[in-house]
Automatic annotation (TrEMBL):
PANTHER family: PTHR23537, SUGAR TRANSPORTER (PTHR23537:SF1). This is YbfB/YjiJ family MFS transporter. The keyword Cell cycle does not apply. It is a multi-pass membrane protein.
């Protein structure tokens, strides 16, 4: 314990890199590799489109559960150990999927994968942010989320490169091979960072839902539903429309997500987080709307990919920052509320898509729920007070 506490990295970049790598493992190779794999697994006959939507729902149920578990563990000082265990377990679950062709077993693994993802997605940034604060480098914390964009790009490349020579459950193999060594290194490194201080310091118990924050929270809930439909089903829509896109829509999502963290971080600082969020939700809504207005057309898919891919990480960053300016002393409670809202509406997306498909609707037409949710988010943001972060 003392050796861990006394360990101090020689550079502030290595903890950031380690956190980014952990997000590559759980979000790129664990969670969102499923998006480009989905139409291939359906074509292979491994799952039906309705089952594909159910698998996504189970994964998001796991993610929400894992995020709540992470907050519980973090507040009780078990963050480092839980992070190491869940990060390596997440990579191993990706490997186990290579050997599973039974739907119920695969659903169980996707649920467990989501739990590990939720734990890591909360704990890795929290642990590194705490360390950066002690080094007066907190302004660099947003760079950790570049791991999400790199993970999307890497997983997309692995799926496309192996699409012609793998089939069925074997399609998970490239992601598993990449994830395991990265998970081992990242968990080892992050476990050596100092542990967090006891929970509750600086935390108050005033009302979290007030006239200022309630519209922000409800807008964020809309954003969760708005982005998750294209982030889950965009390649499946392309397959349903029988379109072969070069570049693929999912590759465009990955590419545009890479600079988005830096872009929205700087835009929020320049024009204010509230104004930046209004632009963010308007652009996301335009992206989902383009797919609805241009059915069966490559342009609709490409616009959706570019506009949603370039904004969804910005919505997370800006909402977290604006929420903390409204409630500067509500640390864990604030995190719990935001994660719960965003996670809950994420799992609603695939469930609504499944209901639509089973009712005879096309997959693309179910995106109307995402468009409506983003319009909802934009309108509610008009009632949020503009507060600077300082």
């Amino acid at each position: 314990m003392n050796s861990t506490a006394s360990h101090q990295p020689s550079s502030h970049w290595w903890p950031i890199i380690a956190a980014a790598v952990s997000l590559i493992v759980v979000h790129g190779f664990g969670r969102f590799v499923y998006t480009p794999l989905l139409p291939l697994l359906v074509d292979d006959g491994l799952i039906t489109l309705s089952q594909a939507a159910s698998l996504a729902t189970w994964n998001y149920v796991g993610y929400l559960s894992g995020a709540m578990l992470a907050l519980f563990l973090y507040q009780r000082g078990h963050g480092r150990n839980a992070l190491a265990v869940m990060l390596t377990t997440n990579a191993l679950i990706t490997l186990l999927q290579v050997f599973v062709s039974h739907y119920e077993t695969l659903a169980t693994l996707r649920l467990l994968n989501g739990i590990g993802n939720g734990v890591v997605f909360v704990l890795a940034p929290a642990l590194v942010l705490e360390w950066l604060v002690t080094q007066q480098k907190a302004q660099l914390s947003g760079l950790m989320y570049l791991g999400v964009g790199i993970g999307l790009l890497s997983s997309s490349a692995l799926v496309e490169l192996s699409a012609t020579w793998l089939a069925g459950p074997q399609r998970w193999l490239p992601a598993a091979i990449a994830a395991i060594p990265l998970a081992l290194w990242s968990s080892w490194y992050l476990h050596r960072l100092p542990g967090h201080a006891p929970a509750g310091q600086g935390d108050d118990h005033s009302a979290l839902w007030d006239r200022a924050s309630t519209p922000l929270f409800l807008a964020y809930a809309g954003a969760g539903l708005g982005y998750i439909l294209p982030m889950t089903f965009l390649p499946a829509v392309a397959a349903d429309w029988q379109l072969t896109l070069v570049p693929s829509a999912w590759l465009l999502v990955a590419i545009t997500s890479l600079p988005s963290t830096w872009l929205w971080n700087h835009l929020g600082a320049a024009i204010g987080d509230k104004t930046a969020l209004l632009w963010n939700y308007a652009i996301q809504a335009a992206g989902v709307g383009a797919l609805l207005l241009l059915p069966q057309q490559s342009a609709g898919l490409w616009l959706c990919a570019i506009l949603v891919g370039g904004t969804f990480l910005g919505a997370v960053l800006l909402t977290q920052r604006l929420a903390r300016s409204l409630h500067p002393h509500q640390g864990p409670r604030l995190s719990a509320a935001l994660i719960a809202l965003y996670g809950f509406t994420q799992l609603l997306g695939p469930w609504l898509a499944k209901l639509g498909i089973e009712g005879g609707a096309s997959l693309s037409s179910t995106f109307i729920w995402g468009f409506a949710a983003l319009v909802w988010a934009f309108v509610l943001m008009l009632w949020v007070p503009a507060r600077r972060d300082h």
